[in-house]
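Shipment paperwork, digital attachment
Item: protein structure file
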Amino acid sequence: MKRFQSNSIAIDQGSNVMFSDFSNNGPMWSGEGPRETVTKVEFTETYREPPMVHVAISMWDTGGDTNQRADLRAEKITRKGFNLVFRTWGDSRVARIRADWMSVGQMPDDDIWDVD
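Attachment content:
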């Protein structure tokens, strides 16, 4: 659990189509083995410190003739944004992925002094 020191808490959210590989026979659709795609996400405003980030697949289109494998994560979370990372492996054929995200964190407050 993350506790905040003030009432200046903000929530940001978004949705990103990460790839659409069926249209160009890209690696997520035609490849095999470990594959990864990274989408850089920027928050609407800069948080005071790195926020909590939740990610979820909101649309996925896969080939029905293979196993469906997916790993979606938020990585390298900073005050300004994060990397949205999708991974698959083996013989999985993934045509498209749309991922939704939500961040929750403390915003800068003029009444809070940073004395180091």
